[in-house]
Description:
Strand content: 15-25%
Distance between the termini: 54 Å
Strand order of the largest sheet: 8-7-6-9-10-11
Largest sheet: 6 strands, parallel
Helix content: 25-40%
Number of strands: 16
Number of helices: 13
Structural class: alpha/beta
Amino acid sequence: MEKFAFVIHPLSAKKDVARKYPIARLFPEPLIEKAMLLKSPIDVSHITGIKSIAGPEAEGWFVGCPLTPKLMTTLPIERVYNKIVDAVKLAEDKGAKIIGLGAFTSVVGDGGITIAERSNIAVTTGNSYTVATAIEGAKKGAEILGINPAEAVVSVVGATGSIGKTCAAVFAKECKEVILVGRSTDKLEALAEEISGGKAKVSTSVDVKTGIENADIVVTVSAAVDAIIEPSFIKSGAVVCDVARPRDVSVAVQKERNDVLVIEGGVVAVPGENADLGFNFGFPPKTAYACMSETMMLALEGRYENFTLGKTVSVEQVETISAIARKHGFKLAGFRSFEKAVTEETIETILKNIKR
């Protein structure tokens, strides 16, 4: 039996902490955050029934790190590292041989490099498979809405991050135009120069609205703490693949825009008839985020190594992890939008409301 673990953390001090400790609803968020700093990592759930179509089986654990994205971006980085390393130690004590860094723990600081150096077990951010499923999901969504990806204008928000860079590089080889959106003009221009020369015209923008308003496909992977994409920013008939956690797309888009398709990147069906994550992320049974799935498949493969770390993901890493996914039976699990399944009726409504 192969063994793995995955670090999760609350996105909101009040909402998410209250799911486990209902009394938290009675207290203001700053007080809850102070209490979190006194907490040690916890064993959240036991993951069972993961069975590869190639034969190997695995079990794992979700380990909770008591920090929100807000705390991770405001606390001294050494304090954040220590909290995450404590979570890794708990996983090691459970028997895990590899651990995945979830949500903000995968991007804070140097993207897992320091955590790996201070850990006795292998570490991965899961970003390689996140890239693979984001690209696959965005293309499939576009085709459903009648968009030919080869002729599409694609915007990548958070383009200079580890996931964004690789998504942009792949799209630049395949699409008509790629717009890189981020906060640093210098970093954006350097990336544009690096990926230019393929099929796509490449341009940059430091303004999210300007950068995506003409895009047919938007892949958004920023490290923002709050939503950065509002309803008025999106072109009618566009598909938006939101890989970021916390999400980049405002919930107002769900209410106000019935002419665009917003999907959560990286929702994956995991192999095993009795697969059970032991924790409710709002997904159907036997499905998980792509970053979680990367950790599982590396365990099934027996590759207890630091696989995806740092601020870059190579195309070769994406191709390697995609091959491992196919070998063990991991695959894209349809579409979800704002934690709900995208139905055929939803697609029909979007197609009907697109302004041509």
